Amino acid sequence: MKKRLLWLLPFLALLLFWLPISSEAETLPAAPTHFYYDQLGILSNQTKDLVENKGLVYKEKKEQPQVVLATIKSTGGDDIDGYAPDLFEKWKIGNAKEDNGILILYALNDGARNVRIEVGYGLEGVITDSISGNILQQAKDDLKSDDSARINRGLQQVFNSVTTLIDKNYDYPADEHALSSDELAAIEDDDSGGLFEIIGPIIFIIVIFIVFGGGGRGGRNGRYRGGGPPFIGWGGGGFGGGSGGGFGGGGGFSGGGGSSGGGGSSI
After folding, report:
1. pTM (2 decimals)?
2. Which of 53, 20, 19 has the alpha carbon at shortest distance from 34?
3. Which carries the bigger pLDDT value, residue 187 or residue 217?
4. Fold (topology level) of 36-190
5. How far apart are CA 104 and CA 95, in angstroms?
6. In a 3-state reduction of DSSP, which class is residue 54?
7. Any residues with CB less than 8 A from the CB of 234 and at least 6 apart, and which?
8. Taking every pair of C-alpha atoms in the chain, what is the biggest distance, in angstroms?
9. Higher pLDDT, 89 or 236
């Protein structure tokens, strides 16, 4: 009897490891076929066109940056700061070589109305934590409103702020939605200090080793269970799993294999 129980232990351990991964796969939505994902149905046609058209313009550029705007009902009980990088990873936003993706995520979360700008590695020097925080603060009144029209307006403002900074970084021509020089100066008022931008990643790595180094637990929904720090360097490639098949509609969003650096801000 004892021998039989011993034989069962590896299978039980495997089951416990697999269940959190399964749960996560159900929580994270499949990659969209457009540069927007509107689970809440609050984005106007104008906003959808704005986001999609900008995405198609970027698709023709050498650097191929990607900005995805998403609204969801819930982060499934997770903090949006932890949920957004996982969604970014699954959708593989940005060019794999440049890691120049941005995810603008709005989560209703039972009325909490959480918003995050998740920044890819390659754009962390362009859209710093402080700058992304400024962008969200300027649109906060609209983003935290219970009026769909105001939320839509706030998300448009955030999107235009992000794309203006990207256009400036790559010397792309400014479009009709670009921020004015005064508006740009206001969000680029980075008061976080250069030192934090340097030591921030070091502190992050130290925390990761402290949290994960000895226990072999942690990760969103408990998916990481090994000893030592979890694997951070997400690779490129196509979209795995999920539903929906190929991307139709003559173009639209297709993940380029980009990775999130964990930078950004939330409100």
Report:
1. 0.71
2. 53
3. 187
4. Diaminopimelate Epimerase; Chain A, domain 1 (3.10.310)
5. 17
6. helix
7. 89, 92, 259, 260
8. 77
9. 89
66-72: strand order across its sheet: 36-38, 66-72, 101-107, 114-120, 260-266
Are the CB atoms for 225 and 65 separated by under 8 Å?
Answer: no
Neighbours of 267 (CB within 10 A): 16
Q: Tell me the one-letter amino acid at 124.
A: E
- Give the pairing of strands 260-266 and 101-107: unpaired
Beta-carbon contacts of 68 under 8 Å, excluding residues fewer than 6 positions away, are: 32, 35, 36, 37, 51, 55, 91, 93, 101, 102, 103, 104, 253
| Cα distance between residue 68 and residue 145, in whole Å | 22
- Rg of the chain (C-alpha set): 20
pLDDT tens for 15-46 read: 444 444 444 444 799 999 999 999 999 999 99
103-128 in b/e burial notation, b at 16+ Cβ within 10 A? bbbbbbbeeebbbbbbbbbbbbebbb
pLDDT at position 104: 99
* Tens digits of residue pLDDT in 40-74: 999 999 999 999 999 999 999 999 999 999 999 99
Domain boundaries, the chain: 36-190
Q: Which residue has the tokens 């039972």?
A: 110
The answer on pLDDT for 201 being more than 60 is yes
C-alpha to C-alpha distance for 188 and 17, rounded to whole angstroms: 44
* Cα–Cα nearest to 157, from 174, 180, 173: 180
Going 167 to 153 to 102 to 41, the CA torsion angle's sign is negative
Q: Looking up tokens 């203006």, which residue turns up?
A: 164
